[in-house]
Design goal:
The protein is an alpha+beta fold. The chain has a single domain, classed as Alpha-Beta Plaits (2-Layer Sandwich). Strands 1, 2, 3, 4, 5 and 6 form a six-stranded mixed sheet that branches.
Length: 155
């Protein structure tokens, strides 16, 4: 299945809707989250970013599109209280792990969008935005999909 941004963002929005702790879903780029541009109404929030991609292939008839994306769990944080800061970072990391577990389960259940997800591509990072008082757990990942040849587009 070819994944496009809308399909992937819709998938993450459904995850946010179904998760008991996540209060809202947003689509923002990382630079928006780190500036005052992003407006998050309720916390914790699942944020999905846009994607970049590259291509790979061992032969002309085996071309792969590697779509690299990320999601973040964002929560309000008392940045001046070290214990609360650690507690908030741990909470966002736990929720991010639950999202990853659901992605793996959806792959196991053969959900078409998730068949090309590999858990080994996932990497995480915890950080704080002291200006906004937000704590983040950001998970980056890759979907690999085969590029099909469509000869009907050529004259």
């Amino acid at each position: 299945m070819q994944q496009n941004y809308t399909d992937i963002a819709d998938y993450f929005e459904q995850l946010a809707d179904k998760h008991k702790q996540i209060k809202t879903f947003c689509r923002y780029e990382l630079d928006e989250l780190l500036s005052k541009t992003a407006s998050i109404k309720a916390f914790p929030c699942l944020v999905v970013e846009g994607f970049d991609f590259d291509f790979a292939g061992s032969s002309p008839d085996n071309i792969l599109k590697n779509r690299h994306g990320a999601f973040s769990i964002v929560d309000k944080c008392d940045i001046f209280n070290p214990a609360k800061r650690c507690e908030t970072l741990e909470r966002t990391e736990i929720i991010a792990g639950q999202i990853l577990s659901k992605m793996v389960d959806d792959k196991r259940q053969r959900l078409p969008l998730m068949t090309s997800f590999e858990i080994n591509s996932a990497e995480g990072l915890n950080f704080i935005n002291p200006i906004l008082g937000y704590a983040f757990c950001r998970i980056s990942f890759t979907f690999k999909t085969k590029i099909g040849e469509d000869l009907t587009v050529w004259q």
